[in-house]
Amino acid sequence: MLKIHQLFLRTFSTIFFLILLVLSATTYYWSKNIYLNQVEKNLSQNIDSLSISLTSFANIEYVIKTFKAKTGLRITIIDEKGNVIADSDKNKDKMENHANRYEIVHAKYEGYGKTIRFSNTLQEELLYVAKKIAIDDEIFYIRLADYTTKIKENFTKLAYQIVAFIAGFMIMAFAATYFLSIKIKDETNAILSYLIELSNKKPKYELYSDFSEEFNKITRLLNKVSERLSKRDKQKAKQTAKLKLANRQKDEIISAISHEFKNPIAIISGYAETILNDKDLPEPMKEKFLSKIYSNGNKMSDIIDKLRLSLKLEEGKQQVITTSCPIKPLCEDIISDLKEKYKNREILLEGEDIKLMIDETLFSMALSNLIENALKYSEDDVTVNINKTSISIKDKGIGIDEKDLKKINQKFYRVSQNGWNNSLGLGLFIVYSILKLHDFKLEIESELDKGSNFIIKY
User: Fold this and answer.
1) How far is it, in rounded angstroms, from Cα 51 to Cα 58?
2) Is 443 helix (H, G, I), strand (E, B) or coil?
3) Alpha-carbon gap, residue 458 to 455, rounded angstroms
4) pTM for this prediction
5) Beta bridge partners of 382
6) Contact between residue 429 and residue 414 where contact means Cβ atoms under 8 Å apart
7) DSSP secondary structure letter of residue 345
8) Which CATH class is domain 323-457?
């Protein structure tokens, strides 16, 4: 297994080399096209210059030889029928008819033609550019050609320079990444060493890092952990009983979490296995199974969200943003959602609408939790009543014993007698905590086998 700095270095090395390869290839073909276009443009401009010098047929040989000496380009003059009447590099009488040459055909119909082709006359590859002109009221084609070997040599030099520049930049970036990975390795090694000492005994020094905000937070948290462990060691004798209770509670929590997750996981696994194994499964049934998988996935997500929310509420880190909110529409939305889940149950909403200053998301969660509890632990109708001083959720279920009412709002407290089970023991703890943030109170009236009435007072 690789260390974090090795993973970091390997990942960035791969990325840098891929970027270098892509940039180099892209730059190569992009610059090559630009360069060839520029050469073509220069040839076209030279043709324009040469056409000005060719004022009559009599001076053609002199003009092309002079132009050849100045530019080094191959010059060919072709008449309208394709016959070569002058060439700067070869004997025109030994050259074949050019009427069907690609660049001449295009120049004939479009006034301009170009191509790259191997010359049998010169036994070399050339870039040809041809234009149609008139000399002494006759149509001719001026064709200039440049050797691609010369073009390639010039371009290769340019390409090497560009690639070298990119490579240099990437090497510098790679070097910076390498040194960054070394620094990360040093920081993680320091943290690991501190953790080893922390696992054995209290470290004799405080850990500090200013490399990054994340490392700084980690070191500060580790120092706090060290301080707490030190205090815990001094009170070890007093904490023995509490630790035993905590261990027992932990086992109960794990058991509760396992129980909560077992059913949705089993459903997800079962339906997924059916979909995978039965390739001929009808589409409606497949959609139904996928819907079940999706809903049970959401159920597990809700359990995790409850655990996280309970931690935030317990630590006082949950923010509350209050707005004036009408309560009755809020209740109607909650009831509508719950009826989707409890299709055969009736939820009655009574009272007039009022407005309260609440955090709508948190308050909805608390209210939904109370109504759903009432649905879970009763088989009759559930009544939600709104008035000016309170909201009550009343059921006719199994009720809660008086001794349990005093502890029911504690975190992870689960009532198991008479079948009443507060799931993970988080529901009412979350409700109490949310209402406390709003300066509201929750009162519970309950009798065994007669039902319960949960009253939010504001």
Assistant:
1) 14
2) strand
3) 10
4) 0.39
5) 347
6) no
7) -
8) alpha beta
